[in-house]
Amino acid sequence: MAQPVLQGRSILLVIGGGIAAYKSAELVRLIRKAGGDVRVILTRAGSQFVTPLTLASLTGNKVQEDLFSLTDEVEMGHIELSRSADLVVVAPATADLMAKAANGLANDLASTALLATDKRILMAPAMNVRMWLHPATQRNLAALKQDGVRLVGPDAGEMACGEFGPGRMAEPAAILEAIVAALAGPTVIPMPEWQAPAPASGPLSGRHVLVTAGPTHEPIDPVRYIANRSSGKQGYALAEAARALGARVTLVSGPVTLPDPPGITVIRVETAREMDRAVEQALPADLAIFAAAVADWRVEDEAGQKLKKDGNAIPPLRLMENPDILARIARHLTRRPGLVIGFAAETENVIGHATAKRLRKGCDIIVANDVSPASGVMGGDRNIVHIIDAAGVTTLPEMAKAEVAAVLMQRFAALLGGET
Ligand code: C5P
């Protein structure tokens, strides 16, 4: 190879226990020739097929074999070992190593390094054809792919054990090509952010807070629906703010692209009627916040099949009213939550419309905001809200939706009072 394509790149090579391990020595040679640095983790089984001395000679580095070697931990701990590389390559990746990695087991140095790394992993599977085709291995393979692990091989052919089929480790030259390709993109895998657990105590601890969020989708036929532009951001922020104050939170969410906030029970629904049922089932609650942009109408006779373009005839859409979830819960005879909050998204005469809405819906407070296109509130990250209660109107300064949520939740918690 004329060009040292791996110059300055460092590979952590995990060698599992299989006859194909003898090819890994050749792989080390190719990586070194391409300018790469190689550190090796040799499993106990792997050391039956290739010696640490061979690998140390080829890599010029000490071969790591034992998880609990104190001197190794001092020189380079297993976390450091797995993160100082640009890429982790497992060759041969045995059925056992794949199973451990797919399930997050960490009971030796190799599996611990695979779990601890923040770098991409490339596996070159090698095993008997029946082991490869076994549903357990295929399941593990699917899980590894889902986790972003890349694969090279296995090849089909005659195997060392005399059987024929897929399971032979890819040739070292092919693995080298896969290494170069894997290093072409970003090598660090973004980790999910650590989330602090809900505080054991807080002004809402012992309280159940119910929040609705997002739009609803009202089907026209199996593939079309009526919807609105709600992103769900303000409702999700409110649910997280309630949890941060110690509440048990149920979030009934219409279709949004936001992930489930940790520590919160999320019930995903599509239509207004599903949302209505989910809210009813989530009762009783101490505080209920209706931040969802529920569709006011649904199609009266939803088509069972996709509507077809039929000459010039345009299908008429007859609409009918959806249940008003907020109004129903605010007047619930047996299980009205102690505090019921509605939201009003208006495009003009914001305070006037919202004040009338509070009385019409029967809720304690309406939080009103201007969602005219010029305001940028729909789908945006900031919001200006007016809090309307029996005493009058309080307008909060423009803030991020998360801050709006925190300020509102503090007020709601204060209104509920300390006792549960
Ligand atoms: O009537 P309007 O849709 O403007 O009222 C907004 C408030 O009512 C919001 O709090 C919204 O979540 C709630 N709502 C509801 N069920 C409906 C319509 C609105 O809960 N069908």
Q: What would you note in describing this structure?
A:
- It is a single chain.
- With 420 residues, this protein is of the alpha/beta class.
- The protein has 14 helices and 21 strands.
- It has helices at 21-33, 52-59, 70-75, 78-83, 95-103, 109-116, 129-133, 135-146, 172-184, 233-244, 272-282, 325-330, 350-361, 401-416, and strands spanning 10-15, 37-42, 87-93, 121-125, 150-151, 155-158, 164-168, 208-213, 218-219, 225-226, 248-253, 265-268, 287-290, 297-299, 319-321, 339-346, 365-370, 382-383, 385-389, 392-395, 399-400.
- The radius of gyration is 30 Å and the shape is elongated.
- It starts with 9 loop residues before the first strand and ends with a helix.
- Cytidine-5'-monophosphate is lined by residues 212, 272, 290, 292, 294, 296, 322-326, 342-344, 357.
How is the secondary structure organized here?
Blueprint: E1 10-15, H1 21-33, E2 37-42, H2 52-59, H3 70-75, H4 78-83, E3 87-93, H5 95-103, H6 109-116, E4 121-125, H7 129-133, H8 135-146, E5 150-151, E6 155-158, E7 164-168, H9 172-184, E8 208-213, E9 218-219, E10 225-226, H10 233-244, E11 248-253, E12 265-268, H11 272-282, E13 287-290, E14 297-299, E15 319-321, H12 325-330, E16 339-346, H13 350-361, E17 365-370, E18 382-383, E19 385-389, E20 392-395, E21 399-400, H14 401-416
Parallel strand pairs: 1-2, 1-3, 3-4, 4-5, 8-11, 8-13, 11-12, 13-16, 16-17
Antiparallel strand pairs: 6-7, 9-10, 14-15, 17-19, 18-21, 19-20
